[in-house]
Amino acid sequence: MDFVSLRSTYKKFIYRDYKIIEQSDKIIIKYYFEIPSLTSFEPSVEILKKDFKIENLHTKFTENLVFNLGMVEAISYFKATCSKDFVVECGNLDEKQQRWFRKLFYLGLGEFRYRNEIKVTEEDFVTFTSLKEKEAIIPISRELDGVIIPIGGGKDSNVTLDLLKDYKNKSYAFRIGVREVPLKAAEIAGFSRDNIIEVKRNIDKNILDLNSRGFLNGHTPFSAMVAFLTYLIAFLTGKKYVALSNEDSANESNVDGEKINHQYSKSLEFENDFRWYAENYLKAGVEYFSMLRPISELQIAMLFSKLEEYHPIFNSCNVGSKSEPWRWCCNCPKCLFVYTILSPFLYKEKLVKIFGEDLFEKEELLQTFIELCGYGETKPFECVGTYEEIKYAITQTINKTEGKLPILLEYYNKNFEKSNANLLDYYNENNNVPEEFAKILKGKILKW
To answer: What global pTM score does this model have?
Structure first.
């Protein structure tokens, strides 16, 4: 099934409604979407209760936050047909909001469009129609304190956990899903289970059915959903900040000459856009920023290499994380990237102990290795660092390796130029990190 025929057959996607259900131990947010003449969807988000300000739960203000979260949740279902007319029955989007969400849909689905060979302009990708009258949202004025720290179990969020561990008593670590790795990382950082907010996202099985039948499918801007969800939770718990772990490297496109970024919703562009949207349309006084934005993946690897207590439990392999117990699959671009970016600091014995084998000796990973270095058609569609960082890491590892080089490093040594850059002193001042947190990060970088 192709983009043009699906849009002509299924012209509308409808965001019908949302519902907030309070139970003794959790809050359930349910959404109601429909593609007329095809199917309907009822996904939900379950949030285990912590110190929520329940008096704020059933208010117009909270409903506005939940409604906006639904706009992002809808992307996972909208993408099946990419119906041009997105009808909003349960809320209102003014002209600026429509432009904002059109940009998010278009760039957030950039990889999806690229892989499905969808040729369409941002202006023509989707139009929004609201059927409900606009309601004024009055900003909330109250004392806020503490941080919501989203954690995924990878090296980046583990570095942020360690940087902010002194805030643990007034903050919450936040995880989506049932993986144990993030919980173990939070516990290493000193967070008790009472200071970990757990969320379960329930995907409607009808979208899985459409996927199996050949409807459009692909990568969605998951981090945009995290932005709206953590903002809602920060409001309900009275926290002042949401501190992400997105780095400067996330800004690089995967396709030369095109704005196709697997990590778009982790980019500084999205971060700035979301901060603007929150200030103008969410108005809870919560500040959303990325703790690691001023530094690169390489510097994060440098910091993580010293956090040895996390080494046995961290994992960011999308393939291996689905197994039980978790593991590194050692065959995907993410595994090879993490292995490579850590190699200047941990190669060889410590790195092999983490992964179980030497990935630089795997000839079957050569093509992936070439793409990571910037010599393929595209950069792998994974959360990986820049070409410059990867070349630097490889060069440093080659220079430090005594004796015979492993297969991949030998290939690089013979075919590509070594990097002469100095990337470990990097600090990008174009960021949104509050000064009290910037001092912590700068202290760690300068200490090294």
So the answer is: 0.92
